[in-house]
Amino acid sequence: MKFTVMRSDIVSAVQNVSRAVSTKATLPALEGILIKAYDNKLTLSGYDLELAITTSIDATVSNEGEIVVGAKLFLEIVRKLPEEIVTFETDERMIIYINSGNASYQIVGISSMEYPEMPEFAALDEIKISAGVLHNMIRQTIYAVSDNINKPIYTGSLFDIKEKIMRIVAIDGYRMAIRQENIDTEVEQRFIVPGKMQSEILKLINDDEKEVLIVVGQRHVSFTIDNYSVVSRLIEGNFLDYRTTVPKGEETVIRINTRSLISSVDRIALITSDRVQSPVRFSITKDEIKLSCKTAVGRANDEIPVSTIGKEVEIGFNNKYVLEALRNTECDEVTLVLNGSLSPMIIRPVAGEEFIFLVVPMRLNDEI
Prior knowledge:
elongated, 7 helices, 9-stranded antiparallel beta sheet, alpha+beta
């Protein structure tokens, strides 16, 4: 195999596909990138048996072929090559010769025969969506994806497509995030996309104006973003019925400046620690929210003027969960809805239905 390629093109490709490469694998080939050189195209793939990322770039191919090269070393080499034109060549001993300007390397490759088969699946449905819309939907919900492997169903987000509305739902037992957008499709589907795959999709979207093609299979899903294809197994199981989880009542309704509330919770949280979680107390009256917290370090208090409709209430929250929800609203103002001290707080837009965020309260035991 022999080909010539632009250094900037291969650096970007290797950097992106490397994120799907296994760092500790029993099969050495899984720690490498599969390179295929055919028809003046270079196809690079990373695959850790769960997630695969593949891309193609232009190259001048003199001798066609394929090989696996260790991802970590390969990325470091191509990053530091001195010239833009790079030549790669392999011999029958699986030695890879890399030349650029006065720099040259000889590294050991692995036969492509040792690389596992890349995932292939029959398409059930295809959905096209604006890259910018998808990016925002994932970014505003991924914070609520669970990292608890004992409940694998919630280590991903539900993509629920029905009646030309797509919703992405994430839940971890302490908070829930629902984000919806109108999309132009007749497809009606429900599937659960792993959080890891969503993280990679966010990194690959760099042009909001383009479209992303989502292909759904029986057990797999793929996202095509520009010249990248990301494929993963779907998470199987029964996702929580999120529609029945959102409280129906509106005992207490508050319209509030998002930045003011974030700043206040941030100030109160200065005396909390990760080791011992003490709730931030929200004492909500007709015309203000008093925030307070008591820990072994000391006490903190703050007040925000508001106009409350409905009942006064006292409720406690984990400051981290409240802050993450508020920061992902990306609104100047939000509406807070409460139904007593034990029911989740709803955070929603002042107008519209783009998102609903829920935060489960912490029980308050002592007086401030």
